[in-house]
Amino acid sequence: MFAILVLFLAGSAAWAQEKAVYHFDGGLEQATKGLRNINNHLEVDSKAKLIAVAHADGVDFLMEGARDRFGPFDARVQDLMGKGVKFQVCEITLRNRKLRKDQFILGVEFVPSGVVQITHLQQKEGYAYLKP
Question: Which domains does the chain have, with CATH numbers?
Answer without folding.
Answer: 17-130 (3.40.1260.10)
